[in-house]
Amino acid sequence: MSAQDVLVLAETRGDALADVTFELLAAGRELARTTGGQVLAVLLGPGGAAYAPALAAADRIIAVDDPRLAEYSPEPFASALREVVEAEQPRAALIAATSIGWDVAPLLAARLDAPLATGCQAIRPDGDGLMATASFCGGKMTAECRVAASPAILMMLPGSYRPTGETGKGELEQRSPAAPLEPGAIAFEQWIYPEAGDVDITQQDVLVAVGRGIQQQDNVELAEELAQALGGAVCASRPVVDQGWLPATRQVGKSGMTVKPKLYLALGVSGAPEHQEGMKDAELIIAVNTDPKAPIFDVAHYGAEVDVLDLMPALGEAIAARKG
Amino acid sequence: MNIVVVVRQVPDLIEPLEIVPSGDALDLDAASFILNESDDHALEQALLLKESGGGSVTVVAIDFGDVDNTLYTAAAKGADRIVKIACDGDTPPAARDSAAVYAEAIKPLRAELVLVGVQAHDELDGGLSPFLAAALELPYVGVIRGVKAGDAPGTVAACKEFPGAVMARMNVKLPAVLGILGADQPPRYVPVSRIRGAMKTTQFEESAATLAAGELLLSVSRLYPPAPATRAEMLSGSEEEIAGRIAEILAEKGLVK
Amino acid sequence: MAATNGHNGAGLLEKLGKLDSGKPPFGCMQCGLCAASCPLGPAMEYPPRKLILQAMAGNLDKLLTSPSLWMCVSCYACSKRCPRGIELAEELWPALRDAAMQAGHQPPAELQETFQNVFKYGNVLGKSPRQRLQWAKDLDVRVLDLSREPRPVDVLWLVGCYPSYYPRNQVVARAFARIMTELGVSWGILGTKEKAVGECDRMFGEEGLFETLVEQNRQMFDEQDFGKIVVLDPHAFRALQSFYPRFDAWYPVQHYTMFLEEYIEQLKPLMVKPVEAVVTYHDNCCVGRRCECYDPPRQLLELIPGVKLVEMSRNRDDSLCCGGGGGGMWLDAHIVANGGRRLSDERVQQAAAAGADTLAVSCPYESSRFEDAAKVTGLEGKLKVRDIIELLAESMDLGERSMA
């Protein structure tokens, strides 16, 4: 153990490691470079060893197993993590801002009387402390927060780091807690899955949005073909839904869904503030509208002032050409 | 069920946020304040539980910002008791530091269930709810969307939200603290005439709890707004040329598979 | 009448019996003229006639929870035709909506939001009050902000929420400022202190919110020294003319068409540019049918050289509502989901059928509603929508000019 190590709480989603875990490992590697320590990945729950190869970016992989860790509940997870942190005495513990992270990080910080910073986008050393750059106030303000004490519990904002190709020593250790974990007052009962139904646009990586500019219901099909070619789904601004051309489950905006896809292709969408609210955080926004003053161009990364009805078939061909 | 709800005032993001001259804090004099959204959900959840299972709802708030308006609205919606904690000075305490004073105000209320919004956008040092639970020495689980009376007496079933709209139903033995993301239904609307009525009839109780200066584990050294967004890069040419350029951009980002 | 589900039927009927207009709603003879006149009647579970019937029978539960309650767009066609003069749109519907909310029934979410916006920010759009003067940024005429520089003026101009904040309507506000200045009118505004007049809140049933606004506005108006209030919004006109006085808040008020009509002689020589357009005027419901002001808007349009005025087959008191009043501006989705149609779509088609290439309006809701409708009905490019103010300003050559 070293007082300069960086601990990363790995999480699984279904049968695989959650994407955020790889972001955390990248953050951990970067921080460990400056502290001169190792990256420790901690996995809580049964079967942790199976994930060790995927956690190759870490130097040590600590898989903790206990019957109480079979399903998530706050008390056993917080206790198990606390034990590891107290044993390893890392400089920092990086936890993702996930449903589990939002419980475990503060519970850990409270029990250890350790500092906690949330919304972290970047961390750097600052004298003998750490400086975390954190986003808050709905993304409208950034704070530089100095954290002196160890361990610094840092909740990382998803999307702040890109997974790294770096590898560490990848040594696996399997452990059990020193004493059997207490169940606590809160127990997992069962998973509840959403009803099967229409497409969940909030879960799509690619969205092709149609607005009034598509003019007629028949043209929605063109958008659907494009969406399919890109592996995504069609969504709509409110007026299109009002017209009944698409169901309400496809509506994006203040009175619809908020989406953050990798691609938001806005076709004939004017981008009124009510609509922008639902999609402005998409990673890549490309907007097509004949009106150069359409507000969508204030949030889009790329724009084109052409008729969507002409562009859609041309774009379909261009994409097919790239694939073929 | 004896339920306590904590409601907080947060800076209204509709106004541009301003920073004090020293650069290390928000200028709260320049800000206007509104009820923290997830606390509104926590209140709604409390009212729903009371309506279905009986009991009482007590709302606790630090006296800051436009809190009176929020508290009269809570009373109009059906809260039974309103407890105000005095706030000395111009700034309310940060989330973690305030946990102790809320705990002090809540302990005498003998709550079976404490509901707090799981996040407030002005928090930097973690949410209030888990630290409040720690200060009250009560169990905690957060990111909860929906709470119902449990099968066994003295329990509730809380749905913890995971990605993909998947929920984990958690059985919670009371007393406990829950960090609320959403209630079983959206916060109810109460007509303004009811709020005006509440202004005439509601008595606030003053809590004896006082804020003690805590050790600052986190210090903000600088605040700044993120870099401003720029307008779209406009593509020009014929439809085919533009389509080609868009396809190129998509391919570069790995979106053409 | 027995109390059911917590509604005190007797209490509501008593209240309805004492409606402000002083006329009992139950002189109704069930003739059905109201339902037949109602543009959304066919889609309502309880069109006006049936609504009264149910109210009289004490079946309030059904009424207060029916989606019909939130489908009235306050077009006043019903009360215009009612042989008994029952104030259906103006009194009965808001009273029922108020009763529904008092009983704990939730209004449609979109309306809830507008109430909260007005309550918190003083405007329906939920925008920051500090941004209320954005419409006047870099305006080439002087804007007197009476909240900062109080002084006597002839006209206190209440700009309105949409003209202050909504881009499509901001150009109309700017044009009106220029026209008044060109006419040498002594005018001022309340700047960032201006709040919604509250007509829509009253019509939506938020009586408490309306009262709050009357109190706040009265206080502000009484601090000022002005001859009359001028508004761009017909709804605001109606509220200031008829509802505010019930709270003892009396102010002389004109809709801008009435105001400018008094300046027709001065305007004539200022119409220097022809505007070649075949124009049809859409009579809005508040200033038109409700207040029977049909001629001033037409007289203003006739001033403009090059304008050929044509009439739609449904005009004046028979005009078809755009669907924006009574909450309609926010309830299109609710109305369509309940089998109603978008009235603005039908109306633009009527405008095109009349042979017009320009649809002239005088209500802030209408510009965007009709432009959206034109896009959806394939009339974009064939039918322009312009506020009368915009047409006047174009002819007066008072177009957009920067300060530079």
Secondary-structure blueprint of this entry?
The complex is a heterotrimer of chains A (324), B (257) and C (404).
Chain A: E1 6-10, E2 12-13, E3 16-17, H1 19-35, E4 39-44, E5 60-64, H2 74-88, E6 92-96, H3 99-112, E7 116-126, E8 129-136, E9 141-147, E10 152-156, E11 171-175, E12 186-192, E13 206-210, H4 220-229, E14 233-236, H5 238-242, E15 263-267, H6 273-279, E16 284-288, H7 296-299, E17 302-304, H8 308-323
Parallel strand pairs in A: 1-4, 1-6, 4-5, 5-11, 6-10, 7-10, 13-14, 13-15, 15-16, 16-17
Antiparallel strand pairs in A: 2-3, 7-8, 8-9
Chain B: E1 2-7, E2 9-11, E3 33-35, H1 37-53, E4 56-62, H2 67-77, E5 81-85, H3 95-106, E6 113-117, H4 128-136, E7 140-149, E8 155-162, E9 166-173, E10 176-182, H5 192-201, E11 205-206, E12 218-224, E13 233-235, H6 239-252
Parallel strand pairs in B: 1-4, 1-6, 4-5, 5-11, 6-10, 7-10
Antiparallel strand pairs in B: 2-3, 7-8, 8-9
Helix pairs in contact in B: 2-5, 3-4
Chain C: H1 9-17, H2 33-37, H3 48-57, H4 60-65, H5 77-81, H6 88-102, H7 109-121, E1 153-158, H8 161-165, H9 167-182, E2 187-188, H10 199-203, H11 207-222, E3 226-231, H12 234-243, E4 253-255, H13 256-261, H14 264-267, E5 277-281, H15 285-290, H16 295-302, E6 307-310, H17 328-337, H18 343-353, E7 358-361, H19 364-376, E8 384-387, H20 388-395
Parallel strand pairs in C: 1-2, 1-3, 3-4, 5-6, 5-7, 7-8
Helix pairs in contact in C: 9-20, 18-19
What features would you describe in this structure?
- The complex is a heterotrimer of chains A (324), B (257) and C (404).
- In chain A, α4 (220-229) packs parallel to α8.
- Chain A has helices at 19-35, 74-88, 99-112, 220-229, 238-242, 273-279, 296-299, 308-323, and strands spanning 6-10, 12-13, 16-17, 39-44, 60-64, 92-96, 116-126, 129-136, 141-147, 152-156, 171-175, 186-192, 206-210, 233-236, 263-267, 284-288, 302-304.
- By secondary structure, chain A is α/β, with parallel strands linked by helices.
- Chain A has 2 domains: 6-175, HUPs (Rossmann fold); 201-323, TPP-binding domain (Rossmann fold, 3-Layer(aba) Sandwich).
- Chain A has a 9-stranded mixed β-sheet. Chain A has a 5-stranded parallel β-sheet with strand order 14-13-15-16-17.
- In chain A, 27% of the residues lie in helices and 28% in strands.
- Chain B has one domain: HUPs (Rossmann fold, 3-Layer(aba) Sandwich), CATH 3.40.50.620.
- Chain C has helices spanning 9-17, 33-37, 48-57, 60-65, 77-81, 88-102, 109-121, 161-165, 167-182, 199-203, 207-222, 234-243, 256-261, 264-267, 285-290, 295-302, 328-337, 343-353, 364-376, 388-395, and strands at residues 153-158, 187-188, 226-231, 253-255, 277-281, 307-310, 358-361, 384-387.
- In chain C, the strands form 2 sheets. Chain C has a 4-stranded parallel β-sheet with strand order 2-1-3-4.
- At the A-B interface, α3, β7, β8, β9 and β12 of A face α4, β7, β8, β9 and β12 of B.
